[in-house]
Q: What sequence folds into this?
């Protein structure tokens, strides 16, 4: 038995010796819902970038998309992701805590808290803005119906919720009770809670529900770009929103097992390069690189942005307070 | 005299062993794992989870809509089976084949298509809006999706039984003076009932656990249109594995009791 294994190893070694450096890489990038288009474009860019430096290698990057929490759970349960690019740091924290697949201080390993691009939450309204929606306060007016996914199941919806809450705090000089009353009022205007951001976009765009869609900035732009979208919808940028930081990380244990640590790290680092940043901006994610940001400043209007770490004490505090069982979101519906 | 008739499939030991291994791998072990996982909770914790108002509302909704859908399919499915067996018309075979489509179609596709049609602005939904009610995003929409997904069960269980009842039996009854409803009540119904109950139970059980097609049309409003499988997903998204299994156990126990009752009822009908 063991002789056979040695023989196999010998053959394998001989094969690899023939091409000492050439390697076939297959990376798996486990991401959240709206990044499909971004990573399709970026994967091609990265493959050609890697090929320039390692002409003998072949690189194939596979992508998997779904709700951020669900994706995180798949990785914990054994999906062999080399890198994760999820909607919330909280989901990667769980991969570190529950799955023990990467160190808990993963977010310090790459610049900008491991977030190569950011986004924010904006309003998508029907063309001409018939309900005259300009800011968060207009969402709770009589007869306005608001579409947002369920914060319990959607990462994007959690950013929506926190942005609304931040507005509630600001409009009421930091009074938490009044901020809660505002989000409660807001959710009285929500007729459908889809499980994910894409589901909500379908409800709003294809099924014609609601007057306002609370959406990722990139999703809103994508809806405009789709055929005829620009004739049907407008984007409204509110006075205040949240800086959504979807982070990226190498899943150490998986990459070590597959021998892809170096290339997986390069894959994420290249996101910060001008080429990577340009692709992010083209796909309507706000780039970190100041030059690229300047080039695309017409696409990304300036607005007041609160952040999860400064204003909500990070996901470790915000998740249990707002979204776990019995949290602020549940209280909205419990009283009914 | 005592010579045993040799069975078609040889080896009682072999076949039983195979059955047990198969059942264990596919059904028993996963279910047992769920119970083991839920056993991490104390009884009070388990009770607190399964009696939370949202869980109870979802329980009522999931089992209620599944029941309505099964009853609806019980009636319409029998009618469909009747038409397909007793009449021959052009296109019958095509319609017959179409009955199975809800099984083949990915449930999410069905859900999205039904939602697009029955949403308040949709092709069909707009008429409902004119009449002052909504179909999608209400329990009615959930029932509709479940009716679609479970359509084949009653048709496919009733169809062969119906085909086996010779027409002469009905004719004989009619000759003896039975009115049409008497023929149905005393001749057809007793023959069909066991198969019908099987189809009904299958449709009901499938409806209770259905997720993919319902999630798009339900609207998922807490306390109103939130189904139990969604609550399980919600718990999982909080990485609350034990909470999720607790609801899973609840669903399993309730379903098992209901299916057992249907089974007993069937027994009583078959052995008067």
A:
């Amino acid at each position: 038995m063991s002789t056979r294994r040695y023989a196999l190893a010998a053959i394998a070694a001989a094969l690899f010796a023939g091409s000492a450096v050439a390697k076939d890489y297959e990376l798996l990038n486990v991401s959240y819902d709206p990044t499909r288009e971004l990573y399709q474009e970026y994967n091609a860019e990265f493959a050609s970038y890697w090929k320039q430096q390692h002409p003998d290698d072949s690189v194939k990057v596979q992508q998997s998309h779904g709700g951020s929490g669900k994706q995180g759970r798949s990785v914990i349960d054994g999906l062999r992701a080399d890198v994760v690019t999820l909607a919330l740091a909280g989901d990667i924290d769980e991969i570190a805590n529950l799955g023990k697949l990467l160190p808990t201080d993963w977010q310090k390993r790459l610049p900008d808290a491991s977030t190569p691009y950011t986004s924010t939450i904006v309003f998508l309204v029907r063309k001409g803005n018939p309900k005259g929606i300009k800011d968060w306060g207009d969402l709770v007016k009589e007869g306005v119906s608001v579409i947002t996914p369920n914060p319990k199941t959607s990462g994007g919806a959690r950013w929506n919720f926190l942005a609304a809450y931040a507005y509630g705090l600001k409009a009421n000089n930091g009074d938490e009770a009044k901020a809660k009353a505002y989000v409660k009022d807001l959710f009285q205007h929500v007729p459908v809670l889809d499980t994910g951001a894409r589901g909500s976009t379908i409800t709003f765009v294809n099924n014609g529900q609601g007057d306002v869609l609370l959406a990722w900035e990139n999703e809103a732009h994508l809806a405009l770009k789709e055929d005829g979208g620009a004739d049907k919808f407008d984007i409204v940028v509110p006075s205040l929103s949240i800086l959504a930081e979807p982070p990226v990380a190498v899943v150490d244990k998986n990459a070590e097992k597959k021998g892809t640590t170096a290339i997986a790290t390069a894959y994420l680092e290249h996101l910060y390069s001008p080429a990577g940043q340009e692709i992010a901006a083209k796909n309507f994610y706000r780039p970190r690189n100041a030059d690229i940001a300047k080039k695309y400043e017409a696409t990304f209007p300036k607005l007041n942005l609160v952040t999860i770490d400064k204003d909500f004490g990070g996901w470790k505090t915000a998740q249990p307070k707002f979204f776990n069982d019995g949290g602020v979101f549940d209280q909205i519906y419990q009283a009914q | 005299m005592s010579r045993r008739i040799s069975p078609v499939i040889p080896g009682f030991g072999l076949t039983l062993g195979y059955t047990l291994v198969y059942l264990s791998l596919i059904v028993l072990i996963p279910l047992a794992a769920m119970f083991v996982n839920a056993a991490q909770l104390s009884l009070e914790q388990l009770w607190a989870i399964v009696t939370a108002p949202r869980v109870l509302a979802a329980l009522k909704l999931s089992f209620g809509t599944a029941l309505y859908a099964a009853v609806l399919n019980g009636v319409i499915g029998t009618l469909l089976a009747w038409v397909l067996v007793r009449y021959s018309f052009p296109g019958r075979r095509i319609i017959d084949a179409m009955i199975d489509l809800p099984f083949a179609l990915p449930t999410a596709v069905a859900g999205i298509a039904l939602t697009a049609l029955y949403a308040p602005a949709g092709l069909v939904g707009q008429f409902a809006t004119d009449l002052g009610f909504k179909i999608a995003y209400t329990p009615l929409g959930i029932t509709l999706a479940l009716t679609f997904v479970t359509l084949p069960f009653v048709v496919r269980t009733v169809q062969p039984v119906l085909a086996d009842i010779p027409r002469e039996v009905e004719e004989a009854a009619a000759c003896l003076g039975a009115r049409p409803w008497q023929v149905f009540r005393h001749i057809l119904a007793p023959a069909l009932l066991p198969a019908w109950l099987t189809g009904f139970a299958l449709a009901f059980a499938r409806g209770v656990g259905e997720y993919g097609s319902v999630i798009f049309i339900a609207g998922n409003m807490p306390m109103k249109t939130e189904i139990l499988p969604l609550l399980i997903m919600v718990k999982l998204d909080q990485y609350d594995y034990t909470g999720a299994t607790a609801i899973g156990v609840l669903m399993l126990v309730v379903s098992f009791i209901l299916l057992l009752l249907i089974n007993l009822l069937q027994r009583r009908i078959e052995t008067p």
User: Anything to note?
Assistant: Residues 53-86 of chain B form the longest helix (34 residues). Chain B has two domains: 9-39, 42-270. The mean pLDDT of chain B is 90. The CA atoms of residues 50 and 96 of chain B lie 42 Å apart.
